Amino acid sequence: MERRAEPAAALLVACALRIERAALRSGGERGAPDGYAVLRTGMGPRAADLAVARALAGPGGDRTSVLATGFCAGLVPGMNPGDLIVAEETRDPRGTVTCDGTAPLAEALARAVPGAAVHLGVLTGSDHVVRGQERAQLRATGAIAVDMESAATLWTATRDARDARDRRGPVAAVRVIVDAPDHELVRIGTVRGGISAFRVLRAVLPAFFDWHRSSLLPRR
Questions:
Q1: What are the CA-CA distances from residue 184 to residues 81, 131, 136, 162, 190 (Å)?
Q2: Which of the 8 DSSP states describes residue 171?
Q3: Which tens digit of pLDDT belongs to each residue from 105-152?
Q4: What is the pLDDT of residues 190-214, one digit of tens each?
Q5: Rounded-to-integer distance, Cα 84 and Cα 145, Å
Q6: Which of 73, 102, 119, 209 lies at a 20 to 30 A Cα distance from 91?
């Protein structure tokens, strides 16, 4: 007897690391939509590709709201651990994905995490941890932050559409800076930066739920 595929989640929040998932789960699920799920993809773009493809394979996968989140590296001097990145678009070698509802999402994050800096811009993908001079090289491309899974997650979520706007389910990426040009991971203060980022990540879920609700409104 052929096994029927399970329906896809209504809101899929994807992260790579166990600590990221722990932060999200510790934030509670008050106000979560029916069909909300947190997916731990594993580290790196290939792992994200495979995990997200499986998660969206069920009926309704093209209508699932997909939000990539977790920690990232900031590329702009003056950024600090705990700052938030809202991607206006994600990039990797395969192309660019335009994100949906970035302005309302940024406003919701400012309400959820008062006092945290929120930066909007390009989030670029990498297959390794970025340090030193490579930060400046990526910044020169117009990117403001880098991580290893967001671009892959959104590319996979939209791969059957010309771009995100042709997909019925919206996509977005929100990352919390854990290190930046002035706060390299290898320097003293890394633990403090990690704690700051963890605390911010555990506070963002209400903003994600607001973004999902607003995405259900008719598009003009």
A1: 10, 7, 13, 37, 7
A2: E
A3: 999 999 999 999 999 999 999 988 887 788 889 999 999 999 999 999
A4: 545 578 889 999 999 999 999 999 8
A5: 10
A6: 209
Looking at residue 26, its amino acid is S
Could you tell me which of 89, 97, 192 has the C-alpha nearest to residue 144? Answer: 89
CA 62 to CA 66: how far, in whole Å?
A: 10
What distance in Å separates the CA atoms of residue 110 and residue 189, rounded to the nearest whole number?
Answer: 25
How many CB atoms sit inside 10 A of residue 215's CB?
Answer: 19
Q: What is the dihedral of CA 108, 114, 119, 120, to 10 degrees?
A: 10
Contact 58, 49 (CB under 8 A): no
pTM of the model: 0.89
